[in-house]
Amino acid sequence: AICDLRFAIDLLLSDSDFYLTSSTFSPLLFFSHQTNKPIMVRSLVFGVALASQSAISLAFVPPSSTNAVIGRSAIVCNEATTTSGNLLDSVLSIFKKDESSSSSSTPNNNKGGKFLMAQSLLLSLINEEQCFSTVEGAQKFADSCTTDIVYEDCYEPQPIVGRAALAEHLRTRALARTNGGKDAGFRIDKISDGSTACGFAWTWTSSSLEGLRGTTFVELNSSNQIQYVREIPEPLYKPGDLILDVLKAVTADATVKPPPEYTPRTPKKANEVAKYLFNDVQGADPDEGMRFFDESIIYRDFNYEEVLRGKAEVRKFIEDFSFPGITFATQRFDDGVAATCFTWEVVLEGAPEGSEIKGISFYEVNPDTGLITYVRDVPESAIKPAPLGKLARQFRPAVGVFRPVAIDSREGGI
Question: How far is 376 from 379, CA to CA, in rounded Å?
Fold first, then answer.
């Protein structure tokens, strides 16, 4: 988020509620890690320290309420176009330069300049605080959560509940990955442009190698604290069509139902496209669903070793998994426009209660056409922790797989 003089003026003229940290113009502009409590302010005063010719100070007047509400004026931050050479513009241009250089290497799908709370918070926690690869960063992530955070690490048998338990879990994992000083990294491959919730595709890295991949969905509460997370790593054993045979065997006695009725629509925003396909069109005419896929679609389902490319391969895949007795029931969506992440569970008719399979999907669309260009599906393992996954994390803890590949050899984490 780039904040300039016009943004400051907009804040001054508005009655929007927002809160700022006075230390930096960073993606964490609206969140205080130190207190973990948002501070609402209605006025912003810029003071220029003329003696130093390079300092700028912020003064804030907090009201009695402590609930953060991101107002309209706190959403959009446009780059300045003024060419005047005053001190304020010079100082703000430094902030812009620092912000641009620190975030240029990470894909963020934010093309319109809109401030995205969830995306910005996660980019800062992951890239700056290194929350998934260092002990200190793990604590920072926990400090950004509600006290009753629910963190579904689907590698583990049970969700982690509560800030203290989560801090311990993330610290333990970071220690296991570094294993006495080994270089362990965490790379964001793709991230949705969500504000209230956000999802990202990721890869574990170590020096010149990369290994385990997965997807994570994160949801904020009204105070912009993390209240829910689902994280699923890829299964190391990918059953391929065997999973299809198993699912069909379980649902062999399912009742054949008439296709659902729906009202045809053509949404363009990523989260609305995903909702339409899963909540309205699922189980109906396959042609209606296929018209939302781009000819160059890349589809990664982690039940399979190979990536699906093109509409013909994707159509066959979708038709193979469309049979009586199987339902992909959606649970939580982010509000992404160019890309979206959402959680779901597979419900099988005839399967025992509690046997639902959790999953996460990441969809990316062409912003001009609204057609889907990229998909990543990842299901949880039926056994937790998955035996092969556990052995790999013990054998090569920094990368989490038995046979890592060269860094950046899988474009976009594919």
Answer: 10
Contacts of 212 (CB under 8 A, 6+ apart): 203, 204, 233, 234, 392, 399, 400, 401
Cα separation, 191 vs 270, whole angstroms: 12
Candidates 178, 77, 96, 97; CA nearest to 135 is: 178
The pLDDT of 43-59, averaged and rounded, is 34
Checking phi first, is residue 404 left (phi over 0); if not, alpha (psi -120 to 50) or beta? beta
Calculate the CA 271 to chain-centre distance: 13
Strands 226-233 and 145-153: parallel
CB 84 within 8 A of CB 46: no
Chain position carrying tokens 């609204």: 370
Nearest-CA neighbor of 107 among 170, 33, 199, 26? 199
What DSSP string describes 97-128?
HHHHHHHTTS-----S-B--HHHHHHHIIIII
CA 162, 164, 165, 168 torsion: positive or negative? positive
Tens-place pLDDT, residues 308-329: 999 999 999 999 999 999 999 9
The identity of residue 137, as a single letter, is: G
Choose the weakest-confidence range: 60-64, 146-150, 306-310, 398-402.
60-64
* Whole-angstrom distance, CA of residue 205 vs CA of residue 95: 30
Instruction: Provide Rg for the chain, Cα atoms.
Output: 23
Residues 326 and 328: their CA atoms lie apart, in Å, by 7
**Is residue 157 over pLDDT 50?**
yes
163 backbone dihedrals φ, ψ, rounded to 5°: -65, -45
Q: H or E segment at 190?
A: strand 185-191
CA distances 15 to 10, 39, 69, 70, Å, are 10, 15, 11, 11
* Dist CA 208 CA 29 (whole Å): 33
State the pTM of this model. Answer: 0.76
Q: In this structure, what token pair is assigned to residue 390?
A: 């556990």
Run of H or E including 176:
helix 163-178
Of 342, 69, 117, the residue nearest 222 (C-alpha): 69
